[in-house]
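Priority: medium. Attachment 1 of 2:
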């Protein structure tokens, strides 16, 4: 799959593409990330990519023409090999990125990602070219680069061979949609704090019940909305419901 990224700060991407479980997918081109520095498409005389907003007010607007030249260069470069791809703009006005959108993108041929800076883009670029606007949530960032990296990371870890067998099993297991259970490793006791004895018992069925109950308890306390969603999707068993009816929140 291929992602083309339009950005004023391509140097922000390089270090992220070189670390962790996703590194191999990027370095082999399994996930082919191509960076398109917007400055390369600036107006030749002034190298401008932004200007003041018509109507006044503080803050600058990203100019439509450099963005259109960058997009034309991408479309031309993709025309040879890659299938048509949607244009996704990262914007505070977008719909919130969800794991279900990540899963759909992970199963696709990729996308063209546009990272906004300043107050935003000239609306005419959005109206003409943008298929989807995505936000990370209701907090304010300086631009779309971290959201683009977030999407790339979330999509790439779902590619075949990126996660180990256990982790990828978890992806489609019964447990998804709930918060994770707590994890412990060595040492067995840390001052007064021991690892829950069941985890040292070797009794795999008891361990599975304990982990499921911790998941249900944590999710019911912190994210009751996720319990409701799991219930509606038919992802809670009779045993889950019985445990939930017994716990005091
Ligand atoms: C005063 C109006 N602001 C909108 C909330 C202006 C503004 C703030 C921040 C315009 C652009 C930005 C830059 N943010 C992004 O490009 C962005 C973003 C974000 O700020 N939060 C969550 N998700 C995203 S995706 C892109």
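Attachment 2 of 2:
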């Amino acid at each position: 799959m291929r992602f083309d990224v339009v950005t004023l700060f391509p140097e922000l991407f390089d270090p992220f593409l070189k670390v962790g479980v996703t590194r191999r997918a990027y370095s082999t081109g399994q996930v082919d990330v191509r960076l398109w520095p917007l400055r390369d498409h600036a107006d030749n005389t002034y190298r401008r990519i932004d200007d003041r907003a018509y109507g006044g007010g503080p803050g600058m607007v990203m100019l439509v023409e450099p963005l259109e030249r960058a997009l034309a260069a991408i479309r031309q470069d993709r025309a040879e090999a890659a299938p048509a791809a949607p244009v996704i703009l990262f914007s505070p006005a977008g719909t919130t990125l969800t794991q279900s959108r990540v899963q759909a993108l992970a199963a696709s041929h990729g996308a063209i990602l546009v990272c906004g800076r300043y107050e935003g883009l000239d609306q005419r670029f959005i109206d003409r070219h943008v298929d989807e606007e995505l936000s990370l949530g209701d907090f304010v960032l300086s631009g779309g680069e971290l959201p683009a990296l977030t999407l790339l990371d979330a999509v790439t870890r779902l590619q075949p061979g990126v996660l180990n067998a256990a982790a990828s099993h978890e992806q489609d297991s019964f447990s998804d949609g709930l918060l994770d259970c707590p994890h412990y490793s060595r040492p067995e006791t840390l001052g007064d704090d021991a690892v829950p004895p069941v985890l040292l018992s070797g009794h795999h069925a008891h361990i599975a019940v304990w982990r499921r109950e911790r998941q249900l308890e944590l999710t019911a306390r912190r994210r009751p909305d996720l319990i409701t969603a799991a219930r509606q999707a038919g992802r809670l068993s009779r045993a889950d419901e019985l445990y939930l009816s017994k716990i005091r929140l």
